[in-house]
Amino acid sequence: IDPERNEFQLSRGQLPDLDDEDSIVADLTCIGVVGIEDPVRPEVPAAIRKCQRAGITVRMVTGDNINTARSIALKCGILKPGENYIVLEGKEFNNRVRDPKTNRVRQDLIDQVWPQLRVLARSSPQDKYTLVSGIIDSHMTTRREVVAVTGDGTNDGPALKKADVGFAMGIAGTDVAKEASDIILTDDNFTSIVKAVMWGRNVYDSISKFLQFQLTVNMVAIIVAFVGACFITDSPLKAVQMLWVNLIMDTLASLALATELPTEELLERAPYGRSKPIIGRTMIKNIVGQALYQLAVIFYLLWFGEQILDVESGRGLSEKGINRPTEHFTVIFNTFVMMTLFNEINARKIHGQRNIFSGLMNNILFLIIWVATFFLQVIIVQFGGYAFSTAPLPLEHWLWCLFFGIGSLVWGQEEEEEDEDEEHENMTGAELKNTGQILWIRGLSRLQTQIRVINAFRAGIPSRLDVLHRFGSVNLDRVPGRSASIGVFGRCNASTRGFNPENPAMQ
């Protein structure tokens, strides 16, 4: 019997006396070997690698034999040769995590086990529940672990209920497991969990993108309206223009930003912590930076725009009883909308990415909404008239508006320099960094070992030279098959490969 491969030997002969243990397996003839294998799905190892790259630790809890479980874990990639992870049976797991006197699970004991535990074999549903509870209640890290559990049996119900996210099998799962779970995998495939992680992160990012865009627009609009009312007794942005920006443009922008499809890049950063605010440090920097740029442009146009554009000033006309639209305020409104439109492209990236156009062509709905909003703005400016408080603008003024709008993209690039949050560290980069550190430490240790070997070898040379001087009649140049190489030892070349100071034959 080979439990690792589920192989059983068939024999033929007279049935022994079952009460006699010594004669049960004796005098039999082997007639064949039957192997039963439950192969790993081809797509599972790749899915587990994606989870590990995304900062997700995959553990296997099974009732199978420990050898079978270890073999499957190696095939899947849960275990890798050379790693210091542990594989336990349920009985040993309970001995490690329970108090010997009270037989109760102690959190300090389970904290010594779960970080290195990767496979738990011969386990019961209670062991699974104990492991899930121990990881959730642990305070070893600054942010609490988020635990997801997969299960299909009735006994898996407590663990599925206790977990932050419970995945039940839709085909093989029982009704109890489905009721206790949060998500049902209709295809019973592990790769669906990877897709769920991608979509979850994508939804979170979509909300953050819209908030970043919306807060920038509202901050600029409120400050412009307040300053205009205080200093020129009139807001450069009229009420109907504010309605267009907030009700129509922002609604379309939210739809455009929320339709971004998930990509593999979402799996290359660490998971979010439970206490992580939805508006992070990078987002605040982007919001404040864009708001400062837009306010600087609008206030410059408000007080000096008529000189640059050679138009009639719109300031103070309301005090004179003149309520007609002016090119001056129309340029301010149009510039604000252009900067908002181009900042919508900036808002697609919230983690400090340099390439804001990455994946832009894959989101057709975003492009359609962006172009449609631009043409609607052209119609409003050129033909809105008194309804939108706008005056038609010549091509030169449109170019100025586009220039300031594109400037928001350039300003956004200046903000994005090396400003990614620590909690969103790129996992691929972190792996490369850790690999480099490991190689450096190994190389340094090897160099130190070689230096110690050379020093030890060098320390024994003087006595040997004294012996050679004492017996000066020996001429090494004339010894057959030898060459005079004393100088090599004197300079201590690093030709010490194969030298073992612990081997008496080498001393």
TrEMBL record:
One of its GO terms (biological process) is regulation of cytosolic calcium ion concentration. It is a multi-pass membrane protein. Residues 235-413 form the Cation-transporting P-type ATPase C-terminal domain. GO terms for cellular component: endomembrane system; plasma membrane. It holds the Pfam family Cation_ATPase_C. Gene3D superfamilies: Calcium-transporting ATPase, cytoplasmic domain N (3.40.1110.10), Calcium-transporting ATPase, transmembrane domain (1.20.1110.10), HAD superfamily/HAD-like (3.40.50.1000). Keywords: ATP-binding, Copper, Copper transport, Ion transport, Magnesium, Membrane, Metal-binding, Nucleotide-binding, Translocase, Transmembrane, Transmembrane helix, Transport. SUPFAM superfamilies: Calcium ATPase, transmembrane domain M, HAD-like. It is an enzyme of class 7 (translocase). This is P-type Cu(+) transporter. It comes from Clonorchis sinensis.
